[in-house]
Design brief:
7-stranded mixed β-sheet, 11 strands
Amino acid sequence: QVQLVESGGGLVQAGGSLRLSCAASGDILRINTMGWYRQGPGKQRDLIATVGNGGSSNYADAVKGRFTISRDNVKNTVYLEMNSLKPEDSAIYYCNLQMWMPRDGWLNFWGQGTQVTVSS
């Protein structure tokens, strides 16, 4: 009964900013790695950023220096601050959370996706 709800997508001009949120709710015991992926039309889903349980983060080269991932362990929420947006950043963005399930161990859960469109 775990669910992830994403928000924050929209249409922005090149150079603008957006802040995405992904909040998990339900029977949550433990969350390890949190991450953000994106998928453009006709393209594969690519990993954009991850943040570990201790707060360490990693970024894809395409967004390094422009995007910042963070987490709030009390709210079970992961954020993605996107600055200096470019048209090539346009995609559907998905959050991914690794959670501990008593019978199954660590499992990945996905958000529903939120559209980000950057105009020239």
